[in-house]
Structures are given as structure tokens and as C-alpha cells.
Design goal:
The complex is a heterodimer. Chain A folds into two domains: 142 residues, Aspartate/ornithine carbamoyltransferase (Rossmann fold, 3-Layer(aba) Sandwich); 151 residues, Aspartate/ornithine carbamoyltransferase (Rossmann fold, 3-Layer(aba) Sandwich), CATH 3.40.50.1370. In chain A, 37% of the residues lie in helices and 14% in strands. Chain A is built from eleven helices and nine strands. Chain A has a five-stranded parallel β-sheet. In chain A, strands 2-1-3-4 form a four-stranded parallel β-sheet, sandwiched between helices. In chain A, helix 4 links the parallel strand 3 and strand 4. Chain A starts with 19 loop residues before the first helix and ends with a helix. Chain B is of the alpha/beta class. Chain B is globular and about 65 Å long. In chain B, strands 1, 2, 3, 4, 5, 16, 17 and 18 form an eight-stranded mixed β-sheet that branches. In chain B, helix 7 packs parallel to helix 8. Chain B contains 13 helices and 18 strands. In chain B, 59% of the residues are buried. Chain B folds into two domains: 105 residues, Urease, subunit C, domain 1; 306 residues, Metal-dependent hydrolases (TIM Barrel), CATH 3.20.20. In chain B, helix 2 links the parallel strand 7 and strand 8. The two termini of chain B are 14 Å apart. The chains are: A alpha/beta, B alpha/beta. Chains A and B meet through helix 4 of A and helix 6 of B.
Chain lengths: 310, 430
């Protein structure tokens, strides 16, 4: 870490806006916060008196809870607004909703929205710190960071590793954040899956696109199948889930192509038996639940850093 | 300004490619007509005429924008015929052709007549375009003959393509009875689907659904084929991709009855303008790449593209200060067309005469309307352009009722300083 380094982000909109040093610093901060969650009294006063709003326009269990736990472990006051209870149903615009929230003077608004760029739109209209908890198919930076943290924790490094991301890259904001994040930190990212899932120009984000699953997974250090988003299959992208599982699912045979010490990650929730067999999901080389645990630490770090900076 | 008094435009540079003229001359206007074009200082006769010194300016036939959306009837909070023609006049346009996707749509003579009635007292001539299909739904032919009798100058389902190729064929055949050009919004909706910007690395990076350039090109090809098959002319609206240009060029080489237009934003901006989720850079077709921009410039120079039309599409903040994927398509363009086109003249893409052809001569020819020349005896629709006058295009300067322009804040060079419609001054900043 350079001595003159200063974390200088008011908002966390995407990994694309974070530098190598920023990511190192966030992971470092998260590692130091992780221990808090293992205490018997899991609370520190760091963010006492701070107000944090979870503004979720899409259903979410894990991410919202993770942010809420992160905030509460640091003694912040948290409030949850979900789409069903928000003004969206009354026809209020997103900008109006945000302005109304700002008038109540929160310190951070954490937003999840189905439209890519919705968090950016908020930063154009209000001055409150914004953390993107997933916007459309753009980015999911806190997930990307917790994945980086997990790999760093388990492998001791990120640089030089081969990371294989498999499946619905086009619809996955997690994939986008991970491709950008892992590439930025020096890993080699390969992506594979049905070509209908590969967005145009994904190689420009830093991923090597492999037509062959074998090529993508061979000698990988990390294999990350993505959730098949059943709710997003309006386009005829794959013939059936059954066919997907047999050609693109991570099975024992497929996973054997990876390095012997390779680990499997998944952003959840898992469609067991589709993108991943239960044996691998629950196996010794699965770090899926470590990812969830690290999610709290990373989100504690993000909240601390953006509020500390504002 | 009373037309009967007459206007004498002195010391301007007359650029009138229809008559092969580019020279210093004085122009005398009386009773709504151009009376004479003579060497400077030589004009005798009407001593009562209002004398206007336009030294250093270009005097050109009134600019005609053959592709605008005036939003009336139905969306008067965005624009009206009055406010839209005021913007046209401020931008140097003496006439506009207004697309029929209003509410109700202009798919019958009643709506056509209503638009023309509202155009009395407007700041520019208004030429209504009727729909091709009933309600613009692309299912059955609209009452094209009745609309022609009421005053439409062309038909188009602009805003949407006519996806049904058989209907498009029938429209081309039927419009022949009424000598109406057919303006094509060429888009394969199955391919563009829910896309909101040009498809490529940038759309992937931004997480925005892409519209492949092929979505335009497939339909440009179809529309050209139908023009060739029926022998009836088509006019391709807002061509935006390199391959569309190539298709149009090769059709023209064969002598097929095809004309085409592009809009200033397609040669002034690329998809990069979308970065930051700028909804004022969202339009359909979407902004494309550097290569497409280069092709469009080349096509304007070599005659593949006949017309620059603005696709002036006013939207309020209600439609634009929202999430990018739900924002409305389109930008206003009437007030920025002249300086943006002048950029190409300054870049050496084409000369002044070509600019006048693209903005006046050719649209008049395609729509078969008056204007496009400064001939003695013709209607006195004239635009005076000061090519050197610079201004910063700020929101308070926007004349249009809507302010949705990606060019806000830009320093622009060259503007209309005097606009004359039928001998009446509709705009002057002299």
C-alpha cells in the first residue's frame, strides 16, 4: 500500500470505478472487520448515529440481509424499503423517491434496481452516498468484492490465478463485476457457456471467451457457475434446463479438469442440478458459504469507507 | 413585418445550387415572392422595401426539415405546432414535415385537417405526414387517399417499422395512385427487441440491452427490395449504420428508386455519449460507432444520403429524468442542425452548396413541395445563415418546449440569423 493512498469514493457504483489500490484497501479493511462477526457480542459502535436505507426494487434475501447485518454490527440504524411497499407502485419516479429519502437525511442509500444505471441516476440528483447493491445487468460491486476477498483468503493471492466463470454471463451483473475485478487484480478470467449467453464485446471487459467448456475449466483455480435466471428466459436462449445441465452444468467429470486444489464458488441462489450438482455444491472444495460470510465483512468495510469519507 | 412592404436583402452571398448560383447578390422580396436577384447595389424599384444588410452571411433557399415530431395533438406538454415551428424558425427552417405518431395518430383526413388548421399562424410551413397503416399499428392500410386530399405530403409509420412485408408492399403500390413518397422507419423489431442502445462492448459494459446494427440493415434491405419490386420510391429515414449506407449506395448505383436521410446526431456523436446513462443520448436508431459516423459523412458527400433531417423528438423531463432503459427515445434537433452541419463544411466533408442541397433542395424534391431555390417568381422562403457566429447552446436558449438535447452546454458555430417564410420574417437575431 502506497503511503499517500487515500480511499476517495463517496459512492460505490461499480468495480469499474475502483482502482487496484482501492480494491486492496477495501479487502484489507474487510479482513479486519471479519473478526467482529465471530465475537459473542457482535457489535461495535463505529457507525452509531448513522442512518442507512436499503432501497430495494427487486426481491433479495441474501444481499439485503447481508447489508443490514453489516450495518447493525456497526451500530448504524437501518431501514428497509422494498418495491412492494415503496412509492414505485404509486407511480412516483425514482428521482422523486430518492429526493424524498434525502430530505430525511440518511448517510447512505443502498439501492438495488432492475435498471442498469439506476444508482448513477441517483448520484446525478442527490448528494447522499449511494451503494449499488445490483443494478440490472450492469454491476454488483459488493458481490464482486466478497468474491475477491474469498479467493484471496483461500488462495493467499489473486494475481496469476485462472478463474472460470460459466453460464449466463449476459444477464449476470455478478459476472460483470467479477470479470472486471479479477482482471484488475491480475487473474486470468475465462468465460464459457451457451454462446447465446455471451454478450457482445465481453472480451473487452477482460474475459477470454471459450466456446469449449473444457478449455474454460482446464487448470482453473476457481470455477464459478452462475445461476440460470429462470425469470429472465423470455428470449429463446437455451432449449431446456435439462440440456443445459448435461452440456454446461458443473459435474464431477467437468470439475476434474480444473486444478486438484480448485475451488467452486457460486453467487447464489443455486439451482441445484442445473448449473451445479449438489455433490459439488456441498463438497469439500465448495466455498459458497464462505462467500456469504465474507459478504458481511465486505459490506461493513464499504459502509465504513463511504461514510468515513463523507 | 408586412409582406406587402417588401424586403431587400443586401450584400449577402447567395448559395442557390438548384440554379447553379453562388455569388454576392441582393434579393428583393415582394408579396411573398422573390422578385429579383441582382448584383449588389444594382437593384432599383421598390423604395419602400425594408432593407436588411446581410453582409458576411449566406442567403439560401429556406431550409426544409422533412422529419420532425411536433407532438400535437396529444402531447402538447412536450411541444405544440406553434412551439415546434418557432424552434424550427429559430434554427433556420422555413418548413417542416411532421410525423404522424401523435395522439390520436394522423391516420385519417380529420386529423390531417386539424394539424393544418393549427398551422395557420405558425412560424414555418407545416407539411403533415400521414400514417401508412390504420392507427400506425402496421396491420391494415390507412385512408391514404383521403389524407392526401386533406393535405399530407408523404406516408410513414415512423417510430415503428411496418413489420409485415406484404403490407409494406401494398402501401408502396397504393401510394402510387396518390403520388406520395413512402418514408421507411427500417427496423427489425424481432432483432432490436428490448434493446436501448447500440450493441457492442459498451452496451455490455453498461449493462444495457443492445440493438445490433443488423436490426436496421435487414429492414433497409427489405425496403430497398420492395421499392425495386414495385417500382415505387422509398425514402429511408434516419440511416445510421455503415452497412445501411452500403445497401443504399449499391441500390442507387443500380438506379433503384431509393432516397435516404440521416440526422445530425448520427454524424456528430457516437455511442460514447450514452456513458453515464445519459438519456439525452438515447434514440432509435441508437447512436453508433466511429466507423458508422465516418460512413455517414462519406455518404453525405457522395450523394448516397440525400437529406439531413433532424428527427426532432421533444420529450419532457418526465420521459427523460428516469432510468435509462425506460427513458423515451429521441432528442430535439431543430435548433442545432445548422451549426452541426456547418461542422462538416468546415471539416471539408462537403461544400456550402452541398449543405443547401441536403437541407433544402433535396427535401423539397422528395416531398414535391415548394422551395429549394431562390428563383425569381418562386415563393420567398429564405434562410440567412451567419456561418461565423458562435454561441453556447444553453438550456435558457432552447426555443423548443422540451430541452432534451445532448448538445446542451456545447459551444456551437454558425446559425440562422434571419428566417423568412412567404415573405414574412419569422425569426431574426440580426
Amino acid at each position: 500500500m502506497k503511503t499517500e493512498y487515500k480511499f476517495d469514493h463517496k459512492h460505490i457504483l461499480g468495480i469499474a470505478q475502483l482502482s487496484y489500490d482501492d480494491i486492496e484497501y477495501i479487502l484489507h479493511t474487510a479482513e479486519s472487520f471479519k473478526e467482529i462477526s465471530s465475537r459473542s457480542i457482535k457489535k461495535v459502535p463505529t457507525l452509531r448515529g448513522k442512518t442507512i436505507i436499503n432501497l430495494f426494487f427487486e426481491p433479495s434475501t441474501r444481499t439485503r440481509l447481508s447489508f443490514e447485518i453489516a450495518a447493525k454490527r456497526m451500530s448504524a440504524d437501518t431501514f428497509n424499503i422494498s418495491a412492494s411497499t415503496s412509492s414505485a407502485v404509486k407511480g412516483e419516479t425514482l428521482v422523486d423517491t430518492a429526493k424524498n429519502l434525502q430530505a430525511m437525511n440518511p448517510d447512505v442509500i443502498i439501492i438495488r434496481h432492475s435498471s442498469s444505471g439506476a444508482p448513477t441516476l441517483l448520484t446525478d440528483h442527490i448528494y447522499t452516498s449511494i451503494i449499488n447493491a445490483g443494478d440490472g445487468t450492469h454491476e454488483h460491486p459488493s458481490q464482486g468484492l466478497l468474491d475477491l476477498m474469498t479467493v484471496k483468503e483461500k488462495k493467499g493471492k489473486i494475481e496469476g490465478l485462472k478463474v472460470s466463470i460459466i453460464g449466463d454471463i449476459g444477464h449476470s451483473r455478478v459476472a460483470h463485476s467479477n470479470i472486471i475485478g479479477f482482471s484488475k487484480m491480475g487473474a486470468h478470467v475465462s468465460v464459457s457457456g451457451p454462446a447465446t449467453f455471451m454478450p457482445v464485446g465481453i472480451d473487452k471487459l477482460g474475459a477470454k471467451v471459450c466456446d469449449s467448456m473444457q478449455e474454460a475449466i482446464s487448470d482453473a483455480d476457481v470455477v464459478m457457475p452462475l445461476r440460470i435466471q429462470k425469470e429472465r428466459q423470455k428470449d429463446p436462449l437455451i432449449p431446456s434446463f435439462r440440456e443445459y445441465a448435461s452440456h454446461f452444468g458443473i459435474t464431477e467429470n467437468m470439475f476434474e479438469l480444473a486444478k486438484p486444489d480448485a475451488m467452486v464458488m457460486h453467487p447464489g441462489p443455486i439451482n441445484r442440478g442445473v448449473e451445479l450438482t449438489p455433490e459439488i455444491a456441498d463438497g469439500a472444495r465448495s466455498v459458497i458459504l464462505d462467500q456469504v460470510a465474507n459478504g458481511v465483512a465486505v459490506r461493513m468495510a464499504l459502509l465504513y469507507l463511504v461514510i468515513g469519507n463523507s | 413585418m408586412a409582406a406587402t412592404q417588401g424586403i431587400l436583402l443586401k450584400n449577402g452571398r447567395i448559395i442557390d445550387p438548384a440554379n447553379g448560383i453562388d455569388m454576392a447578390a441582393d434579393v428583393l422580396i415582394e408579396n411573398g415572392k422573390i422578385v429579383s436577384v441582382t448584383e449588389p447595389g444594382k437593384l432599383s424599384g421598390n423604395a419602400n422595401a425594408q432593407q436588411i444588410d446581410v453582409a458576411g452571411c449566406w442567403v439560401v433557399p429556406g431550409l426544409i426539415d422533412m422529419h420532425v415530431h411536433l407532438r400535437e395533438p396529444g402531447e402538447e406538454y412536450k411541444e405544440t405546432i406553434l412551439s415546434g415551428t418557432r424552434a424550427a424558425s429559430a434554427g433556420g427552417f422555413t418548413a417542416v414535415a411532421c410525423m404522424p405518431n401523435t395522439d390520436p395518430v394522423n391516420d385519417c383526413s380529420v386529423v390531417t385537417r386539424m394539424i393544418l388548421e393549427k398551422s395557420h399562424g405558425a412560424y414555418a410551413r407545416v407539411y403533415p405526414v400521414g400514417t401508412i397503416s390504420k392507427s400506425g399499428k402496421g396491420e391494415a392500410l390507412a385512408e391514404i387517399g383521403d389524407m392526401k386530399s386533406a393535405g399530407i405530403v408523404a406516408i410513414s409509420d415512423d417510430g415503428r417499422p411496418v413489420s409485415d412485408s406484404q403490407l409494406m408492399r401494398r402501401a408502396l403500390e397504393y401510394s402510387g395512385n396518390f403520388d406520395l413518397p413512402v418514408i421507411c422507419h427500417s427496423e427489425d423489431m424481432y432483432l432490436s427487441r428490448t434493446g436501448v442502445m447500440n450493441e457492442g462492448a459498451l452496451s455490455t459494459k453498461l449493462g444495457l440491452k443492445g440493438i445490433p446494427s443488423a436490426a436496421e440493415e435487414i429492414m433497409v434491405y427489405r425496403d430497398i427490395k420492395l421499392a425495386e419490386y414495385t417500382g415505387r420510391p422509398v425514402h429511408i429515414a434516419h440511416a445510421s449504420t455503415r452497412e445501411s449506407i452500403n445497401l443504399i449506395r449499391s441500390a442507387k448505383e443500380k438506379g433503384s428508386p431509393v432516397t435516404a436521410e440521416t440526422a445530425p446526431h448520427y454524424f456528430s456523436l457516437t455511442e460514447k455519449a450514452v456513458e453515464g446513462y445519459n438519456t439525452n443520448a438515447k434514440m432509435n436508431p441508437p447512436l453508433r460507432t466511429e466507423e458508422d459516423v465516418a460512413s455517414i459523412k462519406e455518404a453525405l458527400a457522395d450523394g448516397t444520403l440525400d437529406v439531413i433531417a433532424t428527427d426532432h423528438a421533444p420529450h419532457s423531463t418526465l420521459e427523460k429524468e428516469v432510468e435509462f432503459d425506460v427513458a423515451a427515445n429521441g432528442i430535439i434537433g431543430l435548433e442545432t442542425a445548422v451549426p452541426l452541419t456547418l461542422n462538416l463544411v468546415r471539416e471539408g466533408v462537403f461544400d456550402e452548396a452541398k449543405m443547401v442541397e441536403l437541407l433544402s433542395v433535396n427535401p423539397a424534391k422528395i416531398l414535391k413541395v415548394d422551395g429549394g431555390s431562390i428563383s425569381e417568381g418562386s415563393i420567398a422562403d429564405i434562410t440567412v445563415i451567419n456561418p461565423e457566429k458562435e454561441f453556447q447552446y444553453t438550456i435558457d436558449k432552447v426555443v423548443s418546449k422540451s430541452k432534451n438535447s445532448p448538445f446542451l452546454g456545447r459551444q456551437l458555430k454558425g446559425m440562422a440569423v434571419l428566417t423568412i417564410v412567404g415573405g414574412d420574417i419569422t425569426f431574426s437575431s440580426l
